[in-house]
Prior knowledge:
This protein has about 190 residues and is of the alpha+beta class. It contains three helices and eleven strands, in the order H-E-E-E-E-E-E-H-E-E-H-E-E-E.
Amino acid sequence: MKRLFLLLALLCQLTISVAQQADFQKAVAKYKTAKTVTATATKTSHKNAVANDAVSKGTLLMKAPAEVSITMEGGKDQLLMQGSTFTMTVKGKKHTTSSEKNTQFRSFQTVFESILSGGAKDISKLGDLTTSKQGNTLQLTITPQADSKKAARRMMFSSFVLTIDTKTSELKSLRMNERGGYTEYTFSGYQFK
Length: 193
């Protein structure tokens, strides 16, 4: 009886994973033929201890196979993913890491590479990823798991939340949750080339 229950649970989980992957592939299908994607970006920085959010404008640039750049204030602030290398520039000061050294970015890299390939890269087996579909949006939440308590304390972000419009294939927002607040980027005015 236990084996039957385990088999049914496994089959149910597999069916859900396949359905989630299919929803994701459908949502990002437009990226299959695009080599470059650009959009206007709005950055909102929220700190729990500060009354007003900081808001700035910039651009999003995505290039296949694995480059994503969000640039604000003429390059003073930037998030850049080039393959497994991540560079964050804050007020002109650069910080660099990689998904090989910093585990919190592994699934993040895989998800963006899959978006840029139109869903060709399988994300269904990512253990720290959950997806939910509501109306015309697909939400992907990556909750990185630390290898140790020490590594958990060093993690800059507790989760990443990406929202994709399933009708237009546009990435509508990226929210990076951290201790004491979050940084959220919203995107509009897409051009697929």
